[in-house]
Each structure stands twice: as C-alpha cells, then as structure tokens.
Design a protein that fits this description.
Layout (H helix, E strand, L loop, with lengths): L1 H15 L15 E7 L7 H16 L10 E7 L16 H12 L3 E5 H7 L11 E4 L2 H10 L3 E3 L9
Parallel strand pairs: 1-2, 1-5, 2-3, 3-4
Length: 163
C-alpha cells in the first residue's frame, strides 16, 4: 500500500513537471547601491567591464522596474592596469571607452581612481585625468568604505577565451 501511494505521488510530480526553466521577476528595492572594483590586467578589458555597469542601469531604468537615476547609486573604484584609459594623453587610443565612461558619468556613475596607483605606478596626477573622475587615497580603503555604507561589491571578471 505504501509503495502504491509513493508511486502515485511520484507520478503526480512527474506529470506536473515543466520542461523548461522558470523566469523569476526579482523585486529589486530602491535605492540600489553598487560599488564596482576594477582591477583588470589589461586596459582593453575595460570595454567589457563597462558592460557590467551598463547592465545594471539598463535593467533598473526599464520596465518593469522603471527606477529613476536618483534610485541607482553606482561607484566605480579603479586600481588596475585600466588606469591609463583615464589619462587624457591616451584619449586617441581609447576614445570609444572614454566616451562610454563619460556617458556613464552622465547617468550618475562615480569614477574613482586609486591615487597610490595613479602616482606611484603610472606617474600621473589629477591634472592628467578627465574631470569626470575623482582620485581617492587608496582603492582598497575606498572599497571597504562603500561596503560599510551598504553598497554591494561587484568585481567584473573579464577573461580571455583561448582555443
């Protein structure tokens, strides 16, 4: 009798099972706060990493969420080999990336560069960097600060696909 009942339960479960994944519309809450840590091993990878930032803005500002830009707070802290992209002298080489960076700043994204890396590793100062960027004493300390303020930490992982 127990086997019969278990068999019926299994049969019912199988008959109601779906053959595809289920879409879930997560209910994201305002304000939406993110701090991105950029520590890339090549400046070119910044192109891909910016997609992570654009994705959050796109999803949240479109239906069904329709967040206003005042509901989204994004801080980007950079301290890797992508730093030369932020230098005015490299504008010609990275003009498309700089346009995307500046465009994201118009959406309220705050870009912060580690001053230690900027000065000690690259020999730049604030005068060498675009005006939509701020420098901070230390990327690591800055990231911890934003996390203490309740921001979620996202670290874009940009991999090279090799055959």
């Amino acid at each position: 009798m127990l086997k019969l009942i278990l068999s019926l339960i299994i049969l019912l479960c199988v008959s109601f099972a779906k053959d595809q994944a289920k879409f879930v519309q997560t209910e994201y809450k305002k304000p939406f706060r993110v701090v991105y840590e950029l520590f890339l091993d090549h400046p070119e990878k910044l192109r891909v990493a910016l997609g992570w930032i654009s994705n959050v803005i796109f999803v949240l500002t479109n239906p069904p969420y329709n967040f206003g830009l005042e509901d989204i707070d994004i801080v980007v802290v950079s301290h890797g080999r992508e730093i030369p992209v932020f230098a005015k002298e490299n504008q010609g080489k990275y003009s498309d990336v700089v346009e995307r960076l500046e465009s994201l700043s118009f959406y309220g994204v705050k870009f912060k560069l580690c001053r230690m890396a900027l000065v000690q590793l690259y020999g730049y100062s604030e005068k060498d960097i675009y005006p939509f960027v701020e420098t901070v004493p230390s990327a690591i300390t800055e990231i911890a600060h934003w996390q203490h303020m309740g921001y979620a930490l996202l670290i874009p992982m940009v991999f090279e696909i090799r055959n």
